[in-house]
Amino acid sequence: MKRLWAVVPAAGAGLRLGGDIPKQYREVAGAPLMEHTLRALLQSRDICGVVVAMDPADPRADTIASLSDERVQTSPGGVTRAHSVLAGLDALEDQIAEGDWALVHDAARPCLRGDALAALIDRARVTGEGVILAEPVADTLKQVNAQGVIEKTVDRSILWRAQTPQLFPLLSLRDALRHCIEQGVSVTDEAMAMERAGQPVHIVEGASSNIKVTVEADLVFADVFLTEAEDR
């Protein structure tokens, strides 16, 4: 691993959460969600630069103090997550080299712990292959039919809930995402694109606190978590 770049897709509107502004700008613990996310990434000495893929028409960038950090740059986002991540990677075209890696992290996942990020990077260095944070599924899972009737209980011992950051060789990730977009394949995370490219992806267990803010209750949790973290 030569250098490590981070990409934060932040062009979405967060419609499931509701409200008058995109969820990455909703405030918790005294700052917008995305500000906390960027702070977590910028605390890592392993990350040499961060690209935030944003809606170019979004007037709220001035509320994100970390966007003025010398390690941070922005690029126009796209219509989907994959488009935004690819745009962020393409924005680095003149700066990257063979052997560089890319770490992708959700803008609305502000509770990333430094030890989890370090463990992810260490695992990638050891394996030389893609790695993501993930959490083992704890609930009993049911498979149901179209009528809402349970067909069977699913074995949860082999199931994990994907989180971010997700970390991959940069050029391989860029090629995998571009191929999916060209083929019209919808991917919901970067690991899915790499899986389709036949690339191995490892997991490192992440903390249950590393939530992606999706509903109002998540905002409450993030506010408490981040406020307590600042007090420690």
The helix count comes to 6
Instruction: Name the structural class.
Output: alpha/beta
Helix content: 25-40%
How many structural domains does the protein architecture include? 1
* CATH class term: Alpha Beta
Could you give the order of the helices and strands?
EEEHEEHEHEEEEHHEH
Radius of gyration: 18 Å
Spatial strand arrangement across the major sheet: 5-4-1-6-10-7-11
The separation of the N and C termini measures 33 Å
In one word, what is the shape?
A: globular
Q: Quote the average pLDDT.
A: 91
Overview of this protein structure:
The chain is α/β, with parallel strands linked by helices and 232 residues long. It has a single domain (4-231), classed as Alpha-Beta Complex (Spore Coat Polysaccharide Biosynthesis Protein SpsA, Chain A), CATH 3.90.550. Helix content is 31%, strand content 25%. The protein has six helices and eleven strands. The protein has helices at 33-42, 81-90, 114-127, 170-183, 190-196, 216-231, and strands at 4-10, 27-28, 31-32, 47-54, 72-76, 101-104, 130-136, 141-144, 150-154, 160-169, 201-205. The protein has a seven-stranded mixed sheet. Strands 2-3 form a two-stranded antiparallel sheet. It has a two-stranded antiparallel ribbon with strand order 8-9. The two termini are 33 Å apart. The model has no long low-confidence stretch (mean pLDDT 91).
Please supply descriptive tags for the structure shown above:
two-stranded antiparallel ribbon; globular; Spore Coat Polysaccharide Biosynthesis Protein SpsA, Chain A; single chain; 232 residues; alpha/beta
